[in-house]
Write a structure and sequence with these properties.
The protein is α+β, with helices and mostly antiparallel strands. It is about 30% helix and about 25% strand. It has two helices and three strands. The longest helix has 17 residues.
């Protein structure tokens, strides 16, 4: 299981590629969006790439943290501060 620092470094690369290529990330087999949340403890705005799906008017995000046993940080941020930017 990757460390939090490894997840952060990986996500920064994904965010950079997403922004440089108009929302396209070549290495991922699923669509992603950039989700910006407000930190539950810090109050800082943080952007994270997340997988998503659409079902009619609903958008679903995937919060797996790579299949790890705990939720990703953005999940806790979203619960504490549900207003986000996509």
């Amino acid at each position: 299981m990757p460390t939090d620092e490894e997840f952060l470094a990986y996500n920064q690369g994904i965010i950079r590629e997403f922004r440089e290529n108009g929302g396209v990330v070549a290495q991922l087999p699923f669509p992603i969006m950039l989700l910006t949340t407000t930190g539950a403890r810090t109050g800082r705005r943080t952007t994270t790439p997340v997988g998503f799906g659409v079902d009619g008017a609903r958008v679903y995000v995937v919060g797996s943290k790579g299949g790890g046993p705990s939720h990703p940080s953005w999940f806790y941020n979203l619960r504490a501060n549900p207003s986000v930017t996509v």
